[in-house]
Amino acid sequence: MNSHDLVIVGAGLAGMRAALEGVRAGINVAIVTKIHPLRSHSCAAQGGVNAAINPKDSWNSHAYDTVKGADFIGDEDAIELMAKEAPDSVLELDRMGCPFSRLEQGEVAQRPFGGASFDRTCYAADRTGQVMLHTLWEQLVKANVPVYEECHLQKLALDENGEVAGVVVYDIKNGNIFPIGAKGVLMATGGYGRVFQVSTNATTNTGDGMALALRAGAPLADMEFVQFHPTGLLTSGILMTEGCRGEGGYLINALGERFMGKYAPTKWELASRDVVSRAEQTEIIEGRGKNGGIFLDLRHLGAEKILERLPQVRQLSIDLEGVDPIHEPIPVRPTVHYSMGGIRTDMWGASPLKGLFAAGEAACVSVHGANRLGGNSLLDTIVFGKITGRKAVEYVTAQGAKNFPMREVELVKARIGELKSRRDFGLRPNELHHRLSTKMNQYVGVFRTKEDLQLALEQFPRIRKDYELIHLDDKSEVFNIDLLRAIELGHLIDLAECIVRGALAREESRGAHTRNDFPQRDDEAWRKHTLANWDVEKGEVALSYEAVRTVGNDNYVPKVRVY
Amino acid sequence: MEMKSYTFRIQRNRRNAEGGVESRWQEYKVEASDTTTILSALEEIKGHQDGSLTFRQSCRSAICGSCAMKISGRTRLACKTHVAKVAKNGVVEIAPQANQPVIKDLAIDIGPFFKRVHKITPYLQEGPESTKEVTKSSFDQVNHVTQCIMCGCCYSDCTMAEVSPEFAGPAALAKSFRFVSDPREGHKKSRLAQLAEPHNAWSCVRCAMCVESCPKDVAPMEAIVKLRTRMVAQGLNDGAGARHALAFHEDIQKSGDLNEFTLLQRTLGIFGAVSELGSALHLMKKGKIPSPFPHKADGLQEVRAIYAALEAHPVDVETKAADVAPE
Ligand SMILES: Cc1cc2nc3c(=O)[nH]c(=O)nc-3n(C[C@H](O)[C@H](O)[C@H](O)COP(=O)(O)OP(=O)(O)OC[C@H]3O[C@@H](n4cnc5c(N)ncnc54)[C@H](O)[C@@H]3O)c2cc1C
Ligand code: FES
User: Looking at this predicted complex, what is its ipTM?
Assistant: First the structure.
């Protein structure tokens, strides 16, 4: 059996950054990833990464913006840590060779981003995530970290003491199911955008790590906070970066009016994402949209600026929407984009389940609270990749060898065998996925009500039943994506239930969670984190709550958010 | 939006017990509008008609590099290609990438491709040639090639890779150019020396297929040419490739055109030329080599003028490329 001190699941920015800590500490670390590291969804990040590197800026200001952006439900200790670590983490990447865009004298350039009081978003044109990902991958190659490529995590294995002892993995290339022993596991498996029908996310963003952690007994936090990005392309959901507005782009309705002034008189288009998405949705609901969307107008920026700063975005708009932003406004709408929730951890990335750590979008540390600021997620991955990596190294170094429960391997084999042996009369995975995801879009969108959420919740028993009946067209051993989609669908169902239950229970409006029936933020009753646990007996998600970690800074006392 | 019906002819591949690949063609009908991508059509097939159809994909936005495949004869990203644009008489033909082992249907083994990338030492190294100071334009060259997403389109369409599996390939070479151009890189000279060895920068036949098939406008061949220019500038010009380039230069100046047949001989000597004949014939088949009979180009004066101008103002391999070149 293969064994390592630390197994990291996920080779996005968070996973790879964490692996480097393992290498530096000289422990035996390995990565498991279901797609080649360079395919990880971090590559899709366009806009940039926040860090107070300008001497006129300060980490305090960055921390304050983040606390406010999070609508006062982020954990203040973790937010301060992230803001302090930001400049070093970004400049470290720069030293590794990341080609950030530059100013005349060679300093890393920065652009304005939503919800920020300073131009603190470092970028590389509109492909920041891609160059960061490629740079970290280069370092991974240099460090010779073993990578289990195209291997799909199936299960988190716990020993007789209920501590993490490794993982069970399915090798996509040949269908082998095998155990990997580890004293600790760090989950860096990214987000779950596929829970919704339309999202900016990759199709591989199925929240596997979150769902498997939940089933293994770790709590997920704040799952009801789902970020809707204001500018996903109308038909495909593909992202038009916030950098478009950072560079001066307008949002206009079908009447050609620039409407943001009504909703955010100071910041206009650069208000926080939740604010902008609500404004857009209001325009659409009140009949000033077109085909369920509004428009991102870049025309006044001129061809030269568009070509220099936003070339990729322009191309995507041409390729996917048939619209050239130089000549026409781009049809966009609020689109599911980011998961503020995730595996609950302390400020160092350790979950309450012994031996389980989490970083990046899969984790809820929580630095994003109820609403993430643009540019803070890439930052989250590299800062907490590093910090959590270190913490995990510390933990595994102090642990003795673990007993791997081999029956877990048998359970996974039996489950996969059963899925493949089903007769072909149930739904295809895709058909059930479609039903789940369209309901989520319909009932758990930008504006929520008790009635809608209840309707969504009532779906689950039926969906779970149908899930047990889905059938596969592909029964083969090699590269069976049909099988993986079926397994991933199971994860999406669990996560969707966490989101719906959390949203139904939270009777207030905060950040990305807006309840029409409870339009006010209620700090008295709801300034707390939702925890979702898997109730094994009932076979459903159960909720509990936990206080926000505060640091006693008067500036952070909740107030009304205006932009 | 108006929907039209298309036939997808897809190569289904399966490895048999002996390790060979069994292929057959299967047809599906798909409805598509003007902006429907090949990837969404494939998803439609997989989701509703045949869940066993296998292909890689992830980002849907031409940035993760997963979905490169042969579409109507050329390697393209399925998520960036419109059905309507590539269909011929309502038919779209899809096969896996070429020059790489097939695993199943449209999924290929990406191992050999990445092995080539690993070989060029794909990370920045500190060393005696590192400079700390950078300016806005320092990264202009670097920026251009870092647009590469390692999708493998170039490698699949590369005419040299087709005949020479040892060839490093366009993507790996373009990536090596990224390091040679980075002011922070400390071992530029030794990198260039390594790239001057066989099967690297000088092996490219400059057929420009990679430039055409690259979905991210990296223009790998340009990077390769710039590598060569730097090699010659470093005096790394006694290999076959450099001799080829110098002979090339001589031809153009003399006649305004290449005599590909004697060029080969001048580069490799007669024995080398015979052994390379395979690839030359191959190129000729693809229409990449003109008639073997020497002739003078019409605008010889102009060609000479271009040469004179270039000699007076050499190609600026340090700073030429624009920040991020759009289409
Ligand atoms: C279109 C888009 C644009 C964005 N732009 C920005 C931006 O400009 N600035 C910003 O700060 N943030 C941005 N974000 C958010 C940010 O990019 C992501 O939150 C972040 O990159 C997530 O990184 P990660 O390392 O957590 O996960 P990912 O990069 O998603 O990586 C997940 C990894 O987990 C692996 N994995 C998943 N499941 C399994 C499994 N079952 N078995 C094995 N491996 C598995 C995958 O193979 C992958 O390697 C953007 C997001 C999107 C979608
Ligand atoms: S799916 Fe990512 S490049 Fe096409």
Answer: 0.94
